[in-house]
Structure prediction request, 547 residues.
Amino acid sequence: MLPDITKIRKDFPILRQKVNGKPLVYFDNAATTQRPLQVIDRVNDFSLKTNANIHRATHFMANKTTEAFEESREIVRQFMNADEVAEVIFTHGTTESINLVAYSFGVAFVRAGDEVIVSEMEHHANLVPWQMMCERQGAILKVLPFNDNGELCIELLDDLITDKTRIIAVAHVSNTLGTVNPIAEIILKAHLQNVPVLIDGAQGAAHFNVDVHALGCDFYAFSGHKIYGPTGIGVLYGKRKWLDQMPPFLGGGEMIDKVTFSGTTYNQLPYKFEAGTPDYVGAIGLAAAIQYLQGLDRQVISSYEQDLLTVATLKLKQIDGLRIYGEAPLKTGVISFNIAGIHPFDLGTLLDQLGIAVRTGRLCADPVMDHYGVENMVRASFSFYNTLDEIHAFYKALIRLKTMF
Amino acid sequence: MTIDEIQQEIVEEFSGFEDWMDKYAYLIEIGNELTPIDPKYKIESNLIRGCQSRVWLHQEFAGGIIVFEAESDALIVKGLVALLLRIYSNRTPLEILNSEPRFIDEIGLRQHLSPTRSNGLLAMVKQMKLYALAYEKISSKK
Prediction:
């Protein structure tokens, strides 16, 4: 069964525009997704009618906004199947969520000589905060490698974990390779040795039903703007048992209980980790995005995205000199590649002239570039509002552009 | 010819192109024709690393003139580098300091000089100006 793409694309008016005189083909969804009208309208409506700061005043608009904000939190809780709203923290994105855990968990639990495990395929957001924490706490960063096919070397994980391992951080889905990692298995192995796991869900949350209860992950982070919501809002899910023991990350208003010059006490969860005025407009937009997604048949959508990936992979492999990085058996619609003799920047620039938006560069994953011994890559990433016609146009464009080199 | 006269020349060369493909094909051609930088100058200290492409810039100062050699691993950037060398190499520091590469905007390629850290081009222009500034200061002290 196919989704009604024509109907869906009507929800995303931004897709109707022309770029450089050509119809836009938006293949940069791993960088950010587009927002449906339902999200845009919700955000505009809110700004037109109800805007006030939350958890502070008690006037009408403040109450309505606070209600809407906390309702959004409950919508996210349900979306993730978290046990309680106290475990759902609003942040400004995946990067901030991971920095929060790296810092606070680090202060609470990581000492000199301890170990932290990340994988070789991590986005810098799930690598650099751990490097910084290890430097601060005198801990050692260990790396779980991946093979040329783009799969994590899971068989090495048991030996990598020692009695000094304090936490493992790994991506749900790789932003470069598209690999869907076996996070359930990783969590199981880690828990058998009493090691908590943080999952970077930036690329995963849009494509999968994330059930943190079933997964058992200790932390799960994702961003609003990668799941058809606004920028500036993100989520950190954390098990209460960890969050209760972690000190605050940012200090300021809201996260306190009482402030005096001789000492300050902190608020309860989730507010302990929500200093300052949150992006409550963003949170409301995120909730609208989640509701939009839940209004679609996610199975059908997912299956369609797989079709796009399959067709695109088949077509691209027909191109002489084209190499795809990462061909794991289970992938989302992300294809990073290079064409021999053509620099990704040149290809990306010319594709742009044809209205086709892809990402080029190091994809915020230097270790992945180093693994394959390349400086940059081209990345096409799909979403359920892309079409097979767009894939064919992409293929034809690549063939045509090849002749310029 | 002055820097501005060469810029005008470049703008005229590009005005003949109506099709973006022809414009970029020409840029790629210029890039391909650019004399490669001497390998011994392709060193870390001459590298301007952008995350989209890399640019190497080497300079020598003699007789009051700065000579630049440069290269990029991306062809389109190499083409733009060739044009920048055309206006900025073999110039006095003052000439370099007193002009802006406005031709890039006028040939419709402004996005390649965008102030991100991406393709190294803007950083290269800044670096050329820094060299000019340094040599101007050294010269004026004599």
User: Anything to note?
Assistant: The longest helix of chain A spans residues 60-80. Chain A has two domains: 5-30+297-402, 41-294. The interface with chain B takes residues 20, 343-346, 348-350, 353, 360-362, 375-376, 404-405 of chain A (CB under 8 Å). The domain at 5-30+297-402 of chain A is CATH 3.90.1150.10 (Aspartate Aminotransferase, domain 1).
